């Protein structure tokens, strides 16, 4: 049986992990490679690296980091953040990334999804969608949720699936950072509308929230950053809890 | 030991190379027929779309080289699928090593299947000393069960997670991304 995935997300700036982590036994908590290995050993099913740096050196630094991660990590990982062309994706995959995620660039030019799928295959193309509810309607946002668009979430989700995306990473901007749970109703609707895996993001604060994202939200995977970074939730404990609740996990 | 990973422009080669590096083996990437034929062990990788990958393999002139190999060969993911008779993906004619036709998952399940699934009904040397566990898969097409099946997964129905015919092995999953368990499978392959 296919299991539900738990995915820690690491924010990366200039090749370093951003948020203050308080892991013990790490020689260098800012080193994404060490943190990635740590998560893998604790039972993470997959990792996402989100590059938030905005320097000219960005591409080179990120490719070098991807290479170092791929060398050491024996679970899959996705790289996202500012990817906007076939050439960007090519260099990341060649350096060992398993998947890439695109967001704003796909909204601005949807044909990018088709181009990436044609060249690299659906299996490695994740489309990240940030959305929030405005006057009762879920609307797509850009630039980490800062800039609203006139595109409706559910329309966009169907479109990215029909263009061949392998997965959707859905972040509710209304829930992100609240630690009050995922957008379960919206997730469930997304899951009923498209037949590709949906990764839930935004709102994780407790183990119950993960459980609900799977049971109520029907999500295929759940992603979180701070609850794992600050060790508010231990991955092993979380997976045991999910298993006890009858949710299939790799344990 | 000389391990060659066939480099025909359609593989997640870097990850596989790194996985063997972690086992202490420096694999050679090659599209040279002689070098592949002389290797002790050969990896046939593959990701992407079947007909495109098969076209690349033909362009490289390596299809007959592969079928003629007598040393242990491991096809991974699309590599395994291309070793079958055919694939519904792009109506592709395969290498015909495994006597099975690759078909697409039905819409009753999410396609592609992405994630960790349980590998069951393990048989043979590739899984020597291993219990059932979880492996990482990403795929939309699959090889149904056949008499060459040496492990199964269930997604909608039970299908071939691994195939074997003589010296030819194929795995649908990514051992290079399946944690410590995947590494043990690669180690078993090296020990064949």
From TrEMBL, chain A:
Highest taxon in the source lineage: Bacteria
Molecular-function GO terms, alphabetical: imidazoleglycerol-phosphate synthase activity; lyase activity
Subcellular location: Cytoplasm
InterPro entries hit by this protein: Aldolase_TIM, His_biosynth, HisF, IGPS_HisA/HisF, RibuloseP-bd_barrel
Pathway: Amino-acid biosynthesis; L-histidine biosynthesis; L-histidine from 5-phospho-alpha-D-ribose 1-diphosphate: step 5/9
E.C. number: 4.3.2.10
Record GO cellular component, one term: cytoplasm
Keywords, sorted A to Z: Amino-acid biosynthesis, Cytoplasm, Histidine biosynthesis, Lyase
Keyword Protease: no
Active site (record annotation): 11, 130
Pfam families linked to this entry: His_biosynth (PF00977)
A Gene Ontology biological process term: L-histidine biosynthetic process
Gene3D superfamilies per record: Aldolase class I
Reaction catalyzed: 5-[(5-phospho-1-deoxy-D-ribulos-1-ylimino)methylamino]-1-(5-phospho-beta-D-ribosyl)imidazole-4-carboxamide + L-glutamine = D-erythro-1-(imidazol-4-yl)glycerol 3-phosphate + 5-amino-1-(5-phospho-beta-D-ribosyl)imidazole-4-carboxamide + L-glutamate + H(+)
Oligomer status and interactors: Heterodimer of HisH and HisF.
Job of this protein: IGPS catalyzes the conversion of PRFAR and glutamine to IGP, AICAR and glutamate. The HisF subunit catalyzes the cyclization activity that produces IGP and AICAR from PRFAR using the ammonia provided by the HisH subunit.
Family indicated by similarity: Belongs to the HisA/HisF family.
Protein name, entry field: Imidazole glycerol phosphate synthase subunit HisF
Species this protein is from: Croceitalea dokdonensis DOKDO 023
Lineage of the species this protein comes from: Bacteria, Pseudomonadati, Bacteroidota, Flavobacteriia, Flavobacteriales
Gene name of this polypeptide: hisF
Automatic annotation (TrEMBL), chain B:
Gene Ontology annotations of biological process type: L-histidine biosynthetic process
Positions of the catalytic residues: 77 (nucleophile), 174, 176
Highest taxon of source: Bacteria
One term under GO cellular component: cytoplasm
Gene Ontology molecular function terms on file: glutaminase activity; imidazoleglycerol-phosphate synthase activity; lyase activity
Keyword Lyase: yes
Pfam families in alphabetical order: GATase
UniProt-annotated location(s): Cytoplasm
Enzyme Commission identifier(s): 4.3.2.10, 3.5.1.2
Catalytic activity: L-glutamine + H2O = L-glutamate + NH4(+); 5-[(5-phospho-1-deoxy-D-ribulos-1-ylimino)methylamino]-1-(5-phospho-beta-D-ribosyl)imidazole-4-carboxamide + L-glutamine = D-erythro-1-(imidazol-4-yl)glycerol 3-phosphate + 5-amino-1-(5-phospho-beta-D-ribosyl)imidazole-4-carboxamide + L-glutamate + H(+)
Domain Glutamine amidotransferase: 4-190
Pathway(s) where this gene product acts: Amino-acid biosynthesis; L-histidine biosynthesis; L-histidine from 5-phospho-alpha-D-ribose 1-diphosphate: step 5/9
Entry keyword Glycoprotein: no
Keywords: Amino-acid biosynthesis, Cytoplasm, Glutamine amidotransferase, Histidine biosynthesis, Hydrolase, Lyase, Transferase
Main location per the UniProt record: cytoplasm
InterPro entries attached to this UniProt entry: Class_I_gatase-like, GATASE, Imidazole-glycPsynth_HisH
Free-text function comment from the UniProt entry: IGPS catalyzes the conversion of PRFAR and glutamine to IGP, AICAR and glutamate. The HisH subunit catalyzes the hydrolysis of glutamine to glutamate and ammonia as part of the synthesis of IGP and AICAR. The resulting ammonia molecule is channeled to the active site of HisF.
Subunit structure, interactors included: Heterodimer of HisH and HisF.
Protein name: Imidazole glycerol phosphate synthase subunit HisH
Organism: Croceitalea dokdonensis DOKDO 023
GN (gene name): hisH
């Amino acid at each position: 049986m296919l299991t539900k995935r738990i995915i820690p997300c690491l924010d990366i700036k200039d090749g370093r992990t951003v948020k203050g982590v308080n892991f013990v036994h790490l020689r260098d908590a800012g080193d994404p490679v060490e943190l990635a290995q740590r998560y893998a050993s604790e039972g993470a099913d997959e990792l996402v690296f989100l590059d938030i740096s905005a320097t000219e050196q960005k591409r080179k630094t990120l490719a070098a980091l991807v290479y170092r991660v791929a060398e050491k990590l024996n679970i899959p990982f996705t790289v996202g953040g500012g990817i906007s062309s076939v050439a960007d994706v090519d260099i990341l995959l060649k350096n060992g990334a398993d998947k890439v995620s695109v967001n704003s660039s796909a909204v601005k030019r949807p044909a990018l999804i088709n181009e990436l799928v044609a060249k690299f295959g659906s299996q490695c193309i994740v489309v990240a969608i940030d959305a929030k509810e405005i006057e009762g309607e879920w609307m797509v946002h850009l630039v980490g949720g800062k800039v609203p668009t006139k595109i409706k979430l559910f329309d966009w989700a169907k479109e990215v699936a029909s263009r061949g995306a392998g997965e959707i990473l859905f972040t509710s901007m209304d829930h992100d950072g609240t630690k009050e749970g995922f957008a379960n109703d919206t997730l469930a609707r997304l899951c009923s509308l498209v037949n590709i895996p949906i990764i839930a993001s935004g709102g994780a604060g407790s183990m119950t929230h993960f459980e609900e994202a799977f049971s109520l939200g029907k999500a295929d995977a759940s992603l979180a950053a701070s609850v794992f970074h600050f060790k508010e939730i231990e991955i092993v404990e979380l997976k045991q809890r999910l298993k006890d609740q009858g949710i299939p996990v790799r344990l | 030991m000389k391990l060659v990973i066939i480099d025909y422009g359609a593989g997640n080669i870097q990850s596989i190379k790194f996985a063997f590096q972690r086992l202490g083996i420096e694999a050679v990437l090659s599209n040279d027929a002689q070098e592949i034929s002389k290797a002790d062990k050969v990896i046939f990788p593959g990701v992407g779309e079947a007909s495109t990958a098969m076209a690349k393999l033909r362009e490289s002139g390596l299809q007959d080289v592969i079928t003629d190999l007598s040393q242990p060969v491991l096809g991974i993911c699309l590599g395994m699928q291309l070793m079958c008779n055919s694939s519904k993906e792009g109506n592709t004619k395969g290498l015909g090593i495994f006597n099975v036709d690759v078909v697409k998952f039905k819409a009753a399940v999410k396609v592609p299947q992405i994630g960790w699934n349980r590998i069951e009904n393990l048989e043979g040397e590739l899984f020597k000393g291993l219990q059932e566990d979880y492996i990482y898969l990403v795929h939309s097409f699959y090889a149904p069960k056949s008499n060459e099946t040496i492990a199964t997964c269930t997604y909608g129905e039970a299908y071939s997670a691994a195939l074997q015919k003589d010296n030819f092995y194929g795995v649908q999953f990514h051992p290079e991304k399946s944690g410590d368990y995947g590494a043990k499978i690669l180690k078993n392959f090296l020990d064949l």
